[in-house]
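Quick illustration for those who missed Monday's session on complexes.
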Amino acid sequence: MSETRTETAVSRALATARGEDRAALVGYLPVGYPSVEGSIEAMRTMVRAGVDIVEIGLPYTDPLMDGPVIQTAATGALAAGVHVDDVFRAARAVTDEGAACVVMTYWNPVLRRGVEKFAADLAAAGGSGLVTPDLVPDEAADWLAASDAHDLDRIFLVAPSSTTERLVSTTAASRGFVYAAALMGVTGARSALGSDAAVLVDRVRQVSDIPVCVGLGVSTAEQAHQVAQFADGVIVGSALVSCLVDAPDDLDRGLARLDTLARELAAGVRR
Amino acid sequence: MTDPTSVPLGRFGAYGGRYVPEALVAALEELDEHRRKAMADPAFLGELTELQRSYTGRPSILTSVPRFAAEHCGGAQVVLKREDLNHTGSHKINNVLGQALLTKRMGKTRVIAETGAGQHGVATATAAALMGLDCTVYMGRVDTERQALNVARMRLLGAEVVPVDHGSRTLKDAVNEAFRDWVANVDHTHYVLGTVTGPYPFPEMVRDFHRVIGVEARAQMLDEYGRLPDAVLACVGGGSNAMGIFHRFIDDGDVRLIGLEGGGEGISSGRHASRFSGEATPGVLHGAFTYVLQDDEGQTIESHSVSAGLDYPSVGPEHSYLRDAGRAEYRPITDTQAMEAFRALSRTEGILPAIESAHAVAGAMQLGSELGPEALLLVNLSGRGDKDVHTAAQWFGLLDEDDPIDAEPIGQSPDGAEGEGVQL
Ligand SMILES: Cc1ncc(COP(=O)(O)O)c(C=O)c1O
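Prediction with pyridoxal-5'-phosphate bound:
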């Protein structure tokens, strides 16, 4: 697409990883769980442990692409009073910590704030773009315009069920990277990943040279290592969130687990 | 590059669309292709018509309710479209039989559904039994409790009923859970969405399967009453029975189309399911851009209604369009007003309406009083009240846990009707 754009921090992080001949590690955490401060501390912990790109989740009442772990964290965050503004605070904190970040959000909170305003606020906070699990490019006219106006990445998803025609149109509309769903299903750790992800990445590469990051189900260092063999980035969500959800009343313990897992994953993509 | 935004899909004015995970797009396109072909295929339409005749019991009759009208509707003439007499007890079977036939055409072997009142779940379980499909129904925990009879019915029909414990534990959370199942099993599973919302093509497809209600009713009105009604009234949860009866009348400019929403404990209480009379604003929920009860940050606000089938924070996009265009009007009916209508129709005509449908009946009481004896009102009686007997009996204080005979007789308990609500 447009070669003249300023590169986002996400594009730079992907390029740096490629220069080191490895995949980038993308770690997801929802803002506001167990508290806004706690979640931001957790994001900083991940960055120090080697996560290249933080995917900041915006908790939503009806997360229909999410499995039980992320639902639990989102519900907890909403109950604890998280606000949309907190996502920009988190983006600023991650940026200050030296990492790139994108926001993963269902579409309605963006619509409600106003697509243009959301984009402006995100850009001002240092965020690189949005991952939109329930927005396909077909419905994204406002977001395509706002992301152009603010030099933001737009990370749409592709899935094993996507037709070749849709791989072409979705990658053409995407910028930064495209999010390849490793399997058909919602977020959540899986014991085995199967071959869908590798096949999908291969299909994407035949129609586009946009970087491809793979997520859904990746939870262990071994899986991260496997995925790193064929993808530009490895996205880990539920497994990281579990570190906090499993220690609901003990943030220090949660952070310690998070640190350990993130370091293992970072080693996994470097193996 | 081709501009992916140049063809807006499935919009009713600004409303509708397809806000879904990419993983479901292929299935939605497949569904759209199959249903378009099917709706133009005489063999499919013939099979559906025959099922409607010999299984559902269509056409459903019109019933004039003069005693009810004289005592409660300002003397206006009131006619009920009896969808409650359909097999399984509501309009829901119209849509389900169509989608179940499509499921077979697509070569899929399993259906899933969400349900609030349980009527859509029962209809889906019924069609699955009839056509040899596996069936799983998601139902909010709160609804499994207030519609326990329908849980048993679904299980008797061989369906698996999964209570949903997330969020508000009602219809909207059941829809979320059904979508999660669908994403994981879409290769062999069809999601039989139960109302006129969701991503395209559901709003249009479900409406088309229910359109028979209005097609029959319009012809029956002309035939039996010699004219079109002054108003057509229907309750609106997601809005399928209302779209079904409204659609054939849209071009009849003199016929008012009136949707009755769950007014819960009143708009000012904040505890209601009134998307059009409350503070709802356009947004996205469950795949469609439409009116949604939401807060300033786009989080969904939980709805409240005595009626499980109307207890939903969003509404089908075509209703949003008809409302903004001024073609249809929407009014809230409180829990108390609906239960009064339930009692009035039961005692004057011997017809127990579903509590959902009682909202439409209450609408006729209001409108009849406004328009007077010259008016001819057509009310869609979307379902029967058997499933609600327990709720109604508790509302009116007819159940005494220790001694059923000792309970207050219905006519002498006006206090009970003022509604401490349903305590289950
Ligand atoms: C009898 C009856 N009427 C109405 C409804 C509301 O649905 P809709 O608005 O889609 O007709 C339900 C839903 O469960 C129902 O069971």
